[in-house]
Specification:
The complex is a heterotetramer, with two copies of chain A (about 270 residues) and two copies of chain B (about 300 residues).
Chain A: E1 9-12, E2 15-18, E3 23-29, E4 41-46, E5 50-55, E6 58-60, E7 63-69, H1 73-79, E8 86-93, E9 103-109, H2 113-123, E10 129-136, H3 145-151, E11 157-161, E12 168-169, H4 174-182, E13 187-191, H5 194-206, E14 211-214, E15 230-231, E16 234-235, E17 242-244, H6 245-250, E18 258-260, E19 266-268
Parallel strand pairs in A: 9-10, 9-13, 10-11, 11-12, 13-14
Antiparallel strand pairs in A: 1-8, 2-3, 3-7, 4-5, 4-8, 6-7, 14-17, 15-16, 18-19
Chain B: E1 8-10, E2 13-15, E3 19-21, H1 30-38, E4 43-45, E5 62-65, E6 68-71, H2 80-93, E7 98-102, H3 107-120, E8 124-128, H4 139-142, H5 145-158, E9 163-167, H6 174-183, E10 188-191, E11 195-198, E12 200-201, E13 206-207, E14 213-217, H7 222-235, E15 240-243, H8 249-258, E16 262-265, H9 275-289
Parallel strand pairs in B: 3-4, 3-16, 4-7, 7-8, 8-9, 9-10, 10-15, 15-16
Antiparallel strand pairs in B: 1-2, 5-6, 6-14, 11-14, 12-13
Helix pairs in contact in B: 1-2, 2-3, 3-5, 5-6, 7-8, 8-9
Classes of the chains: A alpha/beta (about 270), B alpha/beta (about 300).
Bound molecules: flavin-adenine dinucleotide (2 copies), flavin mononucleotide (2 copies) and FE2/S2 (inorganic) cluster (2 copies).
One flavin-adenine dinucleotide (FAD) binds next to β5, β7 and α1 of chain D.
């Protein structure tokens, strides 16, 4: 039972990058998470404060990176940390995106862009075409624009902002419909707010397209025990966080509709 | 061998096989119970439910130790009123007994929650009088035979379903508590809950769990849990459900030999949700090889002189 | 850093480093104590000695469990009269404190043995009131605060040496026993002895240990032992010696942070007799990296608010 | 800490051979002990009775053999067992004889011959000359005569019996003196009653010859913890059971003189 992955390791933050007014990227040395695959997540312990799940945004050369949006107590404490600060890591956890060939589309919203960027880097040399659609509220919050430009061709990138300060002024789902009708895609990957994921899933279902979506749920144990992250019959931490179309179909009563709260009761999303 | 070599009945419960999901593990939703049943469990026990909703503790709530886990979830639960709906729904899809684990801060509370759970359709009630990390409930009740007896009596008087009492290993002599529970009306005992433990991080010099202390589970505690079952079986005739560190058929057989009629599995679910099936299959092979017709025949055999 | 960063004094004992050999391990002969000291131990504790010789139990007396061992030696020992010669000889060759572990079946017996051990030259006496597998001594005394207090008082009155009481983890609240021991005159506490456990073999359907039950030690019990130390340190100011599952410097540091002034090492000696040296070196590096000048400075730090 | 070696495994005796009126060889399947080296021992659990240390007499093809003399409760129970009976095994434990080249002499007494036979088989093809001196009370108790004949040349084997029913009528130590004076030996290995070992050690010391002796002591844990098997500063189970001349010199106050009894007191041998 006891595994190296599950052992809490303390490590020191070696680098902190500001990605947007609300998002920072933290780079940590970790022997195990540096071998993670795109889609996997880790549990980050902010000593004395909390331990939270974070998608792995990059992993190589002994280092792992996570991009974190300050939304509450834990994430704000993390944002207040400086390089050299000690944190704890467990993982990597969860499954990962499958590797597709052919024409691939990635659709990211908010920090959901992070694991997709990691995936895009991996797929860049292996696919026929790599398209990226990214949305945010405003220009400042569009994450990894430069990095995405480095892996996808300009013409295959669409950005949207709600206020029109960059790219198209609309929700990320808007340009998708015509894109999916116009072009053939062998796989669609998505990660972001669950309402967005739900809409995209409806679009791919209508068109009978394959999809893999990474979901988020309240997580406590991260190892499939506590039940906090359950959606339908699945545990997001252990059976996910990446789910395919068949699985998403099984959870359609909950996807984008409800989740378990801290007390285990179902609350609307 | 007939397929019912594994079936076992006790305390008014009838199980197709002697493995159960332990309380607290994937224990909130009907779909999870259903999945666990499909993974081979003979019964499922829910997360412990109280009278009011509780959000539990902040993370970290789980930390790994050598051959085990330490957890301090803080009994997060939606409260019995909300959970009753889940029980009702579960009963429409679940084909194995559903045992609802109940906790409270007083005998009255225990009784109220148990009554509501039973009314909602629970096939049995398990009293969590042994949670080692929540103050004023759990182990504080389970360590005192007088208080324990009072709780058991009141619950027993308010339900018409089998009553299982889950004991704490954090006591000097578990048979004293076992005796108090049985005399007060418990139909069966689950032995045991987790061992009170702590994890401290050398680097930050801090206790790791947000609640500081928690409960140790998994393979590390098996020798202690097994000893608790053995101790109880040595003294009384009462159905015992063994719990603590079961992860394979050999562990389960050891618990049967020590005197357990069934086993609960918690921590090992993290490794493999199909653990119920593999344990059951292994026990079945063992019985066949040893020429026993039923698991009942091996219960308590380690006590033979 | 001065080389005495590791030295620590408590209860009238002065240790060059805060590691000790735990009682019962290689604990019979002067040559063994000498070798353990040369392997880096800051003090050695002898096997528990009683008034009469005891041959202990038939084998199996040790069986491996997940991340630990279960043992039931049955307190084999040559009796204090014979052992006094070994103590005297040890004192001629040993340059670290020699702590003699003592057990008895009554307060008088404890006192008699302790007195003889002290007279033979023991630098301190450790009372084994916590052996989980020998009837009428050990844990039965260590689980009852009144009996424990009586034993401690009588021993204290009959010796002029530091008195350490080794507590059992097999209790509902270790601080109750700790308090009883301290009030009765204990100068320090060792926490803890082994957890009561059993091992059963599925193939033969038999308990493996000849004595049926035994005590669990090793990494498996560390989270429980650490919690016991933390619990005691939370309540009192008394020197504590942590014991249970220490096998590397990190374990030792965790015990210091929980409130221990020193650690004892038992089971880990099976892997490597040089464990004392590697633990000490590791602790030294840790202190240097963390800019502490003495191990004393980190004792109890996990309790800071 | 927990190791595969230390895990108690149950297994079924597959073969029992009668070697002498008091000695039987038991053959057991065991995944770990079948890889043992000459000199190592195992702990054999006779369920419900006792657990005792036994030298490994042979190990190959998944099987391990031990040759056991019926001397008391445990060994008599073992002798009463039939093939198919269940026993428990831990180990292999302890160090092993070093492998020497050149001219090698093996001196065995009683069941002490067992590990030496195992060693002889290993050394047969690697040494220049392999001599074996074996002693027993009477002809019937001379163990492995045929097997030793299979690995050593006739002229290099000396047998002795106390009653003269086979070989020379004397103690095994008797022919040794002249042998050691007459011939050059690069290594002497011995195992048997401690008085015999002690005498042989005195002979090799006088002649400044290298020696390795396998010792026996009361053993309980077999893993270096309980202290039952201590001789001088050494634990026979963990630091031995094979000791070289330098180590034997360190224990000369006890070798063949005293040992620890079940209560840990020193008793004469
Ligand atoms: C698999 C997974 C991957 C994630 N990846 C990222 C990422 O790459 N970048 C990022 O910024 N965020 C990510 N999140 C979300 C992140 O975990 C939460 O934002 C964080 O836990 C909020 O903590 P807080 O104390 O700052 O906020 P709080 O004040 O506690 O809560 C703010 C919001 O975060 C949610 N939340 C709180 N605790 C948890 C928890 N333990 N698990 C899940 N959600 C929680 C709450 O429901 C609430 O909606 C991920 C979540 C999951 C489940
Ligand atoms: C490393 C080692 C290798 C051995 N190899 C062999 C072997 O290959 N073949 C063989 O026949 N015998 C061997 N022995 C001796 C064997 O272990 C004892 O003969 C056996 O334990 C006696 O048990 P019993 O109950 O039959 O006799 P008992 O009635 O218990 O005692 C008979 C004698 O055996 C000794 N003895 C008893 N228990 C033990 C024990 N746990 N450890 C050591 N000695 C004990 C007693 O001191 C006594 O002298 C070995 C011993 C050791 C230490
Ligand atoms: C994450 C987790 C949560 C638990 N929650 C509960 C609970 O709510 N009620 C309860 O009675 N026991 C709870 N337990 C204890 C288990 O039911 C079980 O008694 C213990 O874990 C030992 O079994 P195991 O080793 O198979 O896990 C919990 C255990 C774990 C690991
Ligand atoms: C083989 C063995 C023998 C022991 N004998 C004694 C003893 O005689 N007296 C005693 O107080 N404790 C005895 N103990 C308990 C240890 O001193 C120690 O408390 C326990 O093993 C936990 O520490 P560890 O995990 O480092 O081994 C024994 C332990 C072992 C493993
Ligand atoms: S976070 Fe605990 S089961 Fe997923
Ligand atoms: S047999 Fe226990 S130390 Fe050697």
């Amino acid at each position: 039972m006891p595994t190296a992955n599950n052992t809490l390791r303390t490590t020191q933050i070696v680098q902190i990058r500001t990605e947007s007014p609300t998002v920072k990227t933290f780079v940590l040395p970790d022997r195990l998470c540096c071998k993670a695959k795109p889609g996997q997540f880790l549990m980050l312990w902010i000593p004395g404060i909390d331990e939270i799940p974070l998608s792995i945004m990059d992993a190589s050369n002994g280092l792992v990176s996570v991009s974190v949006k300050a939304v509450g107590d834990a994430t704000r404490h993390l944002h207040a940390m400086a390089a050299g600060a000690t944190v704890g890591v467990r993982g990597p956890y969860g499954n990962s995106f499958t590797e597709s060939r052919g024409r691939v589309l990635l659709v990211g919203g908010g920090t959901g862009t992070a694991p997709l960027l990691f995936l895009a880097k991996l797929l860049a040399s292996k696919t026929e075409r790599l398209s990226f659609v990214e949305g945010a509220k405003t220009k400042d919050e569009l994450l990894f624009v430069r990095e995405i430009g480095g892996v996808c061709q300009e013409k295959n990138i669409i950005t949207t902002t709600e206020d029109g300060t960059a790219g198209l002024q609309c929700l990320v789902t808007q340009p998708l419909a015509s894109l999916l009708d116009k072009d053939r895609f062998d796989m669609i990957y998505t990660c972001g707010p669950e309402i967005m994921v739900k809409k995209i899933f409806e679009m791919t279902e209508k068109r009978k397209l394959p999809i893999e979506a990474s979901l988020e749920r309240l997580m406590r144990c991260g190892i499939g025990l506590c039940g906090s992250c359950v959606i339908g019959k699945y545990r997001v931490c252990r059976d996910g966080p990446v789910f395919n179309a068949a699985q998403l179909r099984e959870m359609k009563d909950e996807l984008g509709i409800s989740k378990l709260g801290f007390d285990g009761s179902r609350i609307p999303i | 061998m007939e397929t019912n070599a594994l079936s076992i009945g006790f305390a008014g419960l009838q199980l197709e096989n002697p493995t159960m999901l332990a309380s607290g593990v994937m224990g909130y939703s009907a779909e999870s119970f259903h999945r666990i049943a499909k993974s081979g469990a003979g019964a499922v026990v829910t997360k412990s439910v109280g009278i009011q909703p509780r959000v539990g503790y902040v993370n970290p709530t789980v930390v790994q130790a050598a051959a085990g886990l330490i957890n301090a979830m803080g009994l997060p639960n939606p409260g019995i009123d909300v959970f009753s709906e889940e029980i009702k729904f579960s009963k429409t899809i679940l084909r194995v007994p559903l045992i609802v684990s109940v906790f409270g801060y007083s005998a009255e509370e225990y009784a109220t929650v148990a009554k509501k759970a039973a009314e909602a359709g629970a096939d049995a009630i398990e009293l969590n009088v042994s949670c080692p990390h929540v103050k004023q409930t759990g182990a504080e009740i389970g360590q005192n035979p007088k208080i324990l007896a009072e709780v058991v009596q009141q619950v027993k008087a308010s339900i018409n379903k089998p009553l299982i009492v889950k004991l704490s290993p954090n006591v000097a002599d578990i048979t004293v508590l076992a005796e108090a529970a049985v005399k007060a009306g418990a139909d069966a005992l689950t032995a045991v809950n987790t061992l009170k433990a702590i994890a401290i991080d050398a680097e930050t010099m801090l206790p790791i769990l947000a609640n500081v202390k928690g409960g140790l589970s998994g393979a590390a505690v098996k020798p202690v849990a097994l000893r608790c079952v053995y101790d109880i079986a040595e003294k009384f005739e009462v159905p015992i459900i063994g719990c603590g560190g079961v992860s394979n058929w050999r562990d389960a057989v050891e618990f049967f030999l020590a005197g357990a009629s069934a086993v609960q599995i918690g921590t090992a679910v993290a490794d493999d949700i199909e653990v119920f099936r593999s344990v059951t299959k292994g026990v079945e092979n063992y019985l066949r090889k040893k020429h026993y017709r039923s698991v009942k025949e091996i219960v308590g055999l380690a006590h033979r002189k």
